[in-house]
Specification:
The chain is an alpha/beta fold. It has one domain: Rossmann fold. It has seven helices and five strands; from the N terminus they run βαβααβαβααβα. The protein has a five-stranded parallel sheet with strand order 2-3-1-4-5. The longest helix is centred in the middle third of the chain and has 20 residues. The protein is globular, with a radius of gyration of 15 Å. The protein starts with 7 loop residues before the first strand and ends with a helix. 34% of the residues are buried.
Length: 166
């Protein structure tokens, strides 16, 4: 596929939408690198969220700068990649989509489904109490492929691959 080797797919949406699960499956299916934006949060951000406090723009700025550098590095080294990242605001989305080869995929989800998933999730720093702040902050993307997060992870991978021809 022409240009495929330089593509970076950003799976975005609220916490619990399935970004990491789908991202790992997608990257594995196409033989690309997978990155989870949660792994790039400064420890202060993680501690703040563990305490049930939502991040603000100032908290997210260094994290987004790191992720933008990662996207640039992937493109510069022809490393096709999938990045699972909330990218809740359009300004964050614009900050990360640094090139036409960066594609946003929005895992759209209904709050009840996400609440149920977060209540079942164990070992993650994002408590279910922050769900409301995620939906309040969310600015649905204008230039993205929207896919229903209620689909099974494999159906999501199939839909994304079909849409992006990968």
């Amino acid at each position: 596929m022409p240009g495929m080797r330089n593509m970076v797919i950003i799976l975005m949406g609220v916490s619990g939408a399935g970004k990491t699960v789908v991202g790992r499956l997608l990257a594995s299916a196409v033989g690309w690198q997978f990155y989870d934006a949660d792994d790039f949060h400064p420890s202060a951000n993680i501690e703040k969220m563990r305490r049930g406090l939502p991040l603000d723009d100032a908290d997210r700025q260094p994290w987004l700068a790191t992720l933008r550098a990662l996207v640039h590095r992937c493109l510069a080294t022809s490393t096709a990649a999938v990045l699972a990242c909330s990218a809740l605001k359009r300004a964050y989305q614009r900050h990360l989509v640094v090139d036409p080869q960066v594609r946003l995929v929005y895992l759209i989800a209904n709050p009840d489904l996400i609440r149920e998933r977060l209540l079942q999730r164990r070992g993650h720093f994002m408590p279910p109490t922050l769900l409301e702040s995620q939906f309040t902050t969310l600015e649905e993307p204008l230039d993205a492929f929207w896919v229903d997060a209620a689909l099974s992870p494999m159906d999501l991978v199939t839909a994304i691959r079909r849409h992006l021809h990968i």
